[in-house]
Design goal:
Elements lengths: L1 H17 L7 E3 L26 E5 L2 E5 L2 E3 L35 E5 L2 E5 L23
Antiparallel strand pairs: 1-4, 2-3, 5-6
Organism: Castor canadensis
Keywords: Protease inhibitor, Signal
InterPro entries: Elafin-like_sf (IPR036645), WAP_dom (IPR008197), WAP_four-disulfide_core (IPR050514)
């Protein structure tokens, strides 16, 4: 019985270690900046086409090998805020794109029509990536 328990715990530990949600370091492509893309650099189809620690990312030239950025997910949740009742022209600009853009323990949270740096809150469990921020030139319908 102890062997079965030990085997189960070992299997669970291996599964959690391989699950991306439980790994401490996750990486993503840097933000697309067309001004930094010219002239076009090493084109790629997949990250296997890239050398070293680079990965295949979208670029102004299609796809090119770039050094990935580390994604920092801070503990805690965004504070709850009800959806606005009036549909207004979206004039707000995003202040952040991920938690790492925010100082201290602050989180990158969706607020009304844009994403802002906010202190942690007790109720909302979503993240900014799961909510759609508006385009400043578009009208919400």
């Amino acid at each position: 019985m102890r062997c079965l328990l030990a085997l189960t715990l070992l299997t669970l530990a291996v599964a959690l270690a391989q699950d991306q949600d439980f790994t401490s370091a996750q990486f993503m492509c840097p933000e697309l900046n067309p001004a930094d893309e010219l002239p076009c650099t090493q084109p790629c189809l997949t990250s296997q086409d890239c050398v070293g620690d680079t990965m295949c990312c979208p670029s102004a030239c299609g796809h090119s090998c770039k050094i990935p950025t580390k994604v920092v997910h801070k503990a805690g949740v965004c504070p709850w805020e009800p959806k606005p009742q009036n549909l207004e022209l979206c004039a707000e600009q995003n202040q952040c794109s991920e938690d790492a853009d925010c100082d201290g323990d602050n989180k990158c949270c969706f607020r009304k029509w844009a994403i802002h740096t906010e202190p942690q809150g007790p109720t909302y469990t979503g993240n900014s990536q799961s909510r759609r921020a508006c385009n400043p030139s578009s009208q919400v319908t």
